[in-house]
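USER:
Working in pairs, take the chain set out below, taking as long as you need, and write a paragraph about the fold.
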Amino acid sequence: MRRLSPLLLLVMLLCIPLRSHALDELPLKAAIIFNLLLFVEWPGEAELPPGAPLLLCGDRSAPLWPHLKLLHNRGVRQRRLDVREVASADDERACQAVVLEDAGQRPLAARVVGAGPLLVIGDGQRADDSGVVIRLRMAESRLLFDVDMVQARQQRLQLSSKMLRLARKVNE
């Protein structure tokens, strides 16, 4: 059986209307976050050995956490996704991507932002969170995403033009 390309899968996931209750959107958000990671390149990534970890950090008490944990050890291009809770200063410095689900996670954001090239994925409507590169948004029962290229450039992240074409809005 032939596998779907990550881009086609991302397009299909973004086109699914969310008609049922909020619990159904959590697995979809986790799947979209995983697919977005496939279209981001971190500085120096090409020199890493195959199977090197890509550390995605989150908050264990957040609603999306159990769905993110299901992504642990999945392949992201030549790397392996390592999903961890940010529990110590060492973890904070190692994060390469972090998911912030609401304003209550500002302490998490403050600890990891500035630790190195970091993809910050925000989930929600708050537009004033500094450092967020990709923001997931609900609009007309669909899950969409916006991209802040200013933040991406500050973090020295390369975002695929394919992903940018799928974004609802790209802030240059």
